Each structure stands twice: as structure tokens, then as C-alpha cells.
Amino acid sequence: MSWGPSDCSDIRPGPAIQILSPSRFSSQGPNRGNGRWHLLDRTSTTYLGVTVGALLGGYYVTHLEKVPETGRRRFMAVSVEQEDYIHKLMVEETLQDFRGRLLPSNHPLSQQVRRITRRIITSSNLGHLQGELAPEPVEMMDPFPAAIPRPQTLHPDREWVVLVINDRSLVNAFAAPGLVCVSTGIMPVARNEEGLAAIIGHEIGHVVMRHTSEHLSQAKLFLPIIGLLVMLGLGPFVSALMMRYFYVLPHSRALETEADLMGIKLMARACYDPGAAPRRGRVFEAFKRLEAVNTFKFLDTHPPTEERIAHLKTLLPASFEIYNSNPECSQLDEMRRRGHLSRVRMNIDC
Ligand SMILES: [Zn+2]
């Protein structure tokens, strides 16, 4: 299919944009010549492009909202109800995909992952583990209510399923509202419970910030914008490439940075040492090696590792403020100092 200016003579003078090839249509229609179709001339195409652009712009502007936790403006065209439905499907699909490869819930590794998830979600009122009683809302004993806003995206009644995929060759972790899933392959990278808490905190951070819905919202705009760029004279390949490198990838990197920010806060609220988050830099490298991620920043879905570690370090003072303001964290620290509570290592040989 050619997308360049036409050389046909049966339409008005001036370069015309060929939009469709004849093989896709019948011979009916007003502008057919030399076996090619020309639906609109340049002027009409420009008018159509401007109209579509205005409609798209209006749709975009009316669906902008502010992220409560960071103040970032974002395009959101997926409702919380739609998000819930999509994530229920995700949980079912994950259970289906990894059937027969999941560790039982009473396995020591599953117990560790469940403990970490329990601490993270209950300390931020994000829900409770499936099969367990919902705890009292944290506000009842909240030591830091006003200065540090609590994530409101998830309800304390939400039930969470924790899955551990028994596959050492798979280095992966992901979360959705009501689901935390990690593979045993990530345990050697996490090394200890706090390392794994940093990973799970980051994944739950994506959930709290509704990043999956943001990706889906963005996907709704992708094809219409490419169509608009094509209408305005850019080739489809160039349009898709521009969208990817100037919109999709920078957006993806911004969401990763935001999940890092939320993840370290969630960790601190759950009394996990926030300092474990920048130390988790090895995880970023492991992901990069496995996914053969690009070395050029502008081609990457994630920010460069060094940049992420530096960003996490800048978040440490605020995170320790959260950690130190929670009397429960101080008690745990004191118990560790006295040797009553050793830092737990992941038992990766289980
Ligand atoms: Zn992420």
C-alpha cells in the first residue's frame, strides 16, 4: 500500500492523499482512477484532520484528572468499575496460565510473600488477604494522618490473592487490585524479605496509582492519533514511531518513577526499611538482562537504573520520616537491635 501523494488525474488539482487501496473495496464510489482510490483532496483532508483533532483534543481535556498522591495531570478514560472487571479477568487468567506451577499457600516461600503483602496492604488500608479477617481500619491508630495522605484508590474490604509461581528461570513480579504474583526466580535477586518488600511495594504502587487503567486509556487514543497524523500527511509507520518514542515510552518511564515513589512509601508504612528500595537496584539490572532492554534511554520503557536508584535515594528522608513516625516501626527496630527479631532471609532452597 502506498501512502504518498497521488498522480491520478480524475480528481481536483493538487496533491491528494491516498487513504485506501482498491483491493479492499468494491468498484462503487465517486473517485476512482488508475485502479486507485482517492477519498478526499488535500483541503477536505485538512478540514477533516482539524475536526478530528478538535474532537480528540476535547475528549482528552475532558478526561484529564490529577493524581492525588503526586499532583501529576493524566488522561484517564477507564472507570474504577471497568478497572475492577478487567482485574478480575486478570486474576482468573493468571490462575489459568500458571495452573500446576503455583506453590501451595502453606509453602514457606508463599508464607513469606503473603506476610509481606499482608503488611503492605493492611498498613495502608488497601485490603486484606483472601480467607483472612479484615483488620480494623488503620485510621483508628493512625500515627501520621494529616501530613501524609493515605492512598484512597483501594478499599480496606478488598480481598487479595497471593500467588507464587514455582519457576526459577522466570524473574517476574506483578500486581493488580486483589492480586500479587511473584515467581521463585525473583527470590535470589531480592535476597531477603525487605528486598522482596521493595519489589512488591513497587508493584502495589502501580496498582494504587491505577497505572494499568492509565495504559488502557492511552491505548484508546493511540489509533485515533495515528489516524489523525496520517490524515495530516505523515506516513503510518512514521506516525506510529513518533507516538511510540514521543508519547508511549516517556509516559511508561514516568509511571515507573511514580511507582517507585509510591512503593517506597508503602514499604515505610509497613515498617520495612525504606533503604532497601535503592539497594534493590540489582532487580532493575536483572530485568534488563532478561528482557534485553535497550541501552538508550529514549528507547526504553523503564528509566535508566542509575537514575532510578538516585531518585529513590532522594525519597529516603521523607520515607524515613514516615517510618520513624510509626511507633510500631520503632518497636520492631528495638526488637531487632536486642536480637529478638532477626532480619529474615528468603529461604530460596525451599
Ligand atoms: Zn514497574
TrEMBL record:
<dbReference type="InterPro" id="IPR001915">
    <property type="entry name" value="Peptidase_M48"/>
</dbReference>
<keyword id="KW-0645">Protease</keyword>
<keyword id="KW-0472">Membrane</keyword>
<feature type="domain" description="Peptidase M48">
    <location>
        <begin position="156"/>
        <end position="314"/>
    </location>
</feature>
<dbReference type="InterPro" id="IPR051156">
    <property type="entry name" value="Mito/Outer_Membr_Metalloprot"/>
</dbReference>
<dbReference type="GO" id="GO:0004222">
    <property type="term" value="F:metalloendopeptidase activity"/>
</dbReference>
<keyword id="KW-0378">Hydrolase</keyword>
<keyword id="KW-0482">Metalloprotease</keyword>
<dbReference type="GO" id="GO:0006515">
    <property type="term" value="P:protein quality control for misfolded or incompletely synthesized proteins"/>
</dbReference>
<protein>
    <submittedName>
        <fullName>Peptidase family M48-domain-containing protein</fullName>
    </submittedName>
</protein>
<dbReference type="GO" id="GO:0034982">
    <property type="term" value="P:mitochondrial protein processing"/>
</dbReference>
<comment type="similarity">
    <text>Belongs to the peptidase M48 family.</text>
</comment>
<dbReference type="Pfam" id="PF01435">
    <property type="entry name" value="Peptidase_M48"/>
</dbReference>
<dbReference type="GO" id="GO:0046872">
    <property type="term" value="F:metal ion binding"/>
</dbReference>
<feature type="transmembrane region" description="Helical">
    <location>
        <begin position="221"/>
        <end position="243"/>
    </location>
</feature>
<keyword id="KW-0479">Metal-binding</keyword>
<keyword id="KW-0862">Zinc</keyword>
<keyword id="KW-1133">Transmembrane helix</keyword>
<keyword id="KW-0812">Transmembrane</keyword>
<dbReference type="GO" id="GO:0005743">
    <property type="term" value="C:mitochondrial inner membrane"/>
</dbReference>
